[in-house]
Design goal:
Blueprint: H1 2-20, H2 26-36, H3 41-54, H4 59-72, H5 76-84, H6 90-104, H7 111-131, E1 137-142, H8 148-157, H9 166-172, E2 177-184, E3 193-200, H10 208-211, E4 242-250, H11 261-275, E5 281-284, H12 291-307, H13 318-328, H14 335-345, H15 352-372, E6 374-375, E7 378-379, H16 382-389, E8 393-398, H17 405-411, E9 415-420, H18 425-435, H19 442-453
Parallel strand pairs: 4-5
Antiparallel strand pairs: 1-2, 2-3, 3-4, 5-9, 6-7, 8-9
Amino acid sequence: MLTLIVSKSKCRRFCDHYTSIAPEDRLRFLTTLSKQYGVNQEAVVQVARSVVSAQEKGETLLLMTEERLRHTLIPQYQQLFSKIGRLEGGVKFLVDMRADILTHLPGVQSEEYKAHMRILQQTIRDLLALWFSVGFLHLQRITWQSPCDMVQKISQYEAVHPIRDMTDLKRRVGSYRRCFVFTHGSMPGEPVVVLHTALTGSISSSIHSILKTPTFSGRRPETDSSSDGDVEEKEELSKISAAIFYSITSTQKGLQGVDLGNYLIKTVVKELQNEFSGITQFSSLSPIPGFKTWLIIEINKALNLKDIGEHSEELLLLSEIEELKNFLGISEESVLKTVKDLIQTHAWIQNEQICDVIKKPLMRLCARYLHREKRRGFALNPVANFHLGNGAVLWRLNWKADMSIRGINQSCGMMVNYRYYLESTEENSRKYLENQVIQTTPDFLSILAVEHAV
């Protein structure tokens, strides 16, 4: 018992000491911890040699030696972290420490120290993945009557569509809306992941119809009358047949890489099915972060190759080039650069005729980005990778779906629906994770079909 008390006391002093270090000075502490208290490499080499020699002395000795090797490969600080996790506030301390590691890691110059730091954060991540498994998470619906500090945190943590004011916040937890969070017993009152859902009559194609937000030009689009989101409005069940997941936010950087959003969506689906028997459609309305950046990079590559006389894969089809050339009154050679300028300056937004002309190439290129651009075989876009990994279908690409400055800068105003067909989500997930097969629809593929027809 005395040993346990001393151990807890030392763990507490460790936490207090680390917390007392100024954030900008924690890198030195973390690199020292990762290198000097990690795996004993000399012991690993020695035991590994014993494994080789034990192969000739029977399976029993081999298994015992392998067990010794497994224990030798455990970093020394893992035992410390396991005990810190038992302290009050200890799990949150480790979540915050891992957030610090992830923040500092890109700035580590030494490849040796960077490797040690990666193992340090991976060790904490593996512990957190165990502690934050679905059995230890608690689903909670947030309403306007929820504790004030929890409602305030929902506002502060919202990362997908920032909450503008108290009226906006009140609407997002009001009628025809559901805001759910996962909490964890070791972090009371702290939402670890937040999911905002709109209850509508059909699958939404614009975020403005859900949030009542103005566009970049200041115009307020018409809203879906069945989903105003007013707190006092009585919900009519006959108007609700679709659940739209329009924002999911992981609130803790230290939990990055720990799969919580997948569990939350599946749990919320069951909750909504119990509450509304009339809901038959489940879909996201998702942003497409990174599309505009990717497009500008691809245009720059094409322009640079053209300057040095080399051929590149054409971004624009001949029919698109011809239409843009005739409408804008420019030469064929300057079409691609003009498109780049229009996108970067947002000049296309203010002119409906230009919008009509540029719509087809932008939607086609965005569909290509979502469906064909890959990283290690999986979708390059992180939001696409998340939903496809959950078993959703790449269902519909929506033009002018988010015409806020944020939406325009991310994806030229486009958003995408990932639809969850409950009877096939597990099979879709398996095909994507094992074979990188993206399930989509004929309508979505028709946007890309023109590329093959040329």
